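Q: Is it fine to ask for two folds in a single conversation?
A: Yes, each is treated on its own. Send the first.
Q: Here.
A: Result:
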Amino acid sequence: MDVPPTPFVNFVVVGVQKAGTSALFHFLAQHPQVAMPTVKELHFFDDDRRCWDAPDYRDYHGRFPRRRGCVVGEATPSYIWWPGALARLADYNPRLKVIALFRDPVDRAHAHWRMSRARGLDALDFSTAIRAEGRRLDGLAPQAPERRHLSYVARGFYGQQVDRLYDVFPRRQVLMLRKEDLANDHAATLARVFAFLGLPPAKIEPCRIFEGAASEAPAPQDVAYLAATYAADLARFALLTGLPVSAWAGGCARGPAPADGRCG
């Protein structure tokens, strides 16, 4: 019996919350020459409990279908942010291709807080939480779950994250996208993604990904506080990526959050 080879992951999708990573995972899984796991976010390379001195990839590879003639990939957004995850990915496959999705960092912070509140992980209001973040996270163990749940401000420093990404992967192996690209220019953006992965074109219909009920926007003073906090880093991010960000730093967060987004 001709058994297909063990999958070897060729690409990952990384990025930030509610930036289109779920939609892109869904679209990629529909391409006939892409093999993806049945679930998004395997969280293999950001798992500090594993022995990374001599990593065992067998259980990781076991999550992927065995299909010949396919590129193999997964989507775990936090790989770009979690300490050590990018270096572990590079050790696993130095030729790995990385697709990174971003959104307005102020909008992202508010969405992150709403998610933590909905899950019962944070009792603070948004204004208090973003100003207390440094104190709340200071002294926590590196692997403490609060670092994932309460890092509303920290995860918005995209320039720092891209600097770390380019430290371990050459730019030719990285494709940078904004949430707006996938939502507003679906076909052209997917064509870029498929070309980046060396795949033939495929017609994939757009979808609507539920984002939760409409919610109150952050207060203007909180938008201003975060916009000022991110200003220098956002300039660095724009310089590194070439992505247009003039509408960011609060532009998306000033109106009510949508009940759903085309590809959010």
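Q: Second one now.
A: Result:
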Amino acid sequence: MERIKEIEDAYIAIKDGKILAAGKSPAAISAKEKIDAKGMIAIPGSVDCHTHLILYGS
């Protein structure tokens, strides 16, 4: 299995809930909101499928 490469000092640009771009951070990014995610992992496209079917009623 091929090891997934990390991208340090990266960015993910999101607009209207959709990913516009991602990659190595340019020197300056203009954004409404910035989130410092240092030490965290971003997995675009990953969905949390954990659910309890009983919560959906009958």
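Q: Anything structural to flag on that second result?
A: Two points. Residues 10-56 form one domain. The chain has no helices and two strands.
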